[in-house]
Design a protein that fits this description.
With 203 residues, the protein is mainly α. The protein has one domain. The protein has eight helices and no strands. It is globular, with a radius of gyration of 16 Å.
Length: 203
């Protein structure tokens, strides 16, 4: 029963925000099966992200490291790896299956990011207990959604324009990775800065 409770605590915020986001896409809604699959693949993408990060970070402990060390881990490793893994879910599956307007990129990016955040939440809940979600639910979960909207919209524009705008997507992915890394560093050293980043991005 404890395991079921952990899953509910970890996944409820992500599922709520996905439901909320889909309600805004009422004019030309996306196939719910594809949205659900994108969410599930977003969950799965946390596994290769975690493996690659472990290879690059080795024994570095984010909890005991210095702020400079944390930045050195977040900007070249964690931010880019996690954003690329989530991006790959949308680009390799959803993008090829059903895209017909720019906002589609936002919908599928939201599904992938919230899936990633939800399984990541579960790992944190298993390690630190359900109380960790007091901050992760409104910050980290929403943070993934905000960061991925950057490249999600760029993917939608790329598909709708029919033009070669690969550079736009690459730049948007870099911006998302930088925003993600900045949030992570702020969460360790400047919590109010992390809050401001998420709130500002959501607004």
């Amino acid at each position: 029963m404890a395991a079921v409770g952990f899953v509910l605590v970890a996944f409820t915020p992500g599922l709520f925000w996905l439901w909320f986001f889909l309600r805004q896409d009422a004019y030309r809604p996306e196939p719910r099966r594809l949205v659900a699959l994108t969410f599930a693949l977003g969950c799965v993408s946390t596994i290769p992200a975690g493996i690659i990060e472990a290879i690059f970070l080795g024994d570095f402990d984010l909890e005991t490291g210095t702020l400079v060390g944390t930045g050195a881990a977040m900007f070249p490793v964690v931010g880019p790896i996690e954003e690329v893994c989530k991006f790959a879910v949308v680009r390799l599956k959803s993008y090829r299956s059903f895209f017909d307007e720019p906002t589609d990129g936002l919908v599928y990016a939201a599904a992938a990011s919230l899936g990633f955040a939800s399984l990541e939440n579960l790992f944190y809940v298993a390690d630190y207990g359900p109380q960790v979600m007091i901050l992760r639910a409104p910050l980290s979960t929403v943070g993934h959604l905000v960061f991925d909207s950057i490249w999600g919209y760029a993917l939608g524009v790329l598909h709708a324009s029919g033009a070669k705008r690969t550079g736009l997507v690459v730049v948007s992915l870099i911006l998302a990775a930088v925003a993600h890394a900045t949030f992570n560093v702020a969460a360790f050293g400047f919590p109010l800065g992390a809050v401001a980043l998420v709130v500002g991005g959501a607004v």
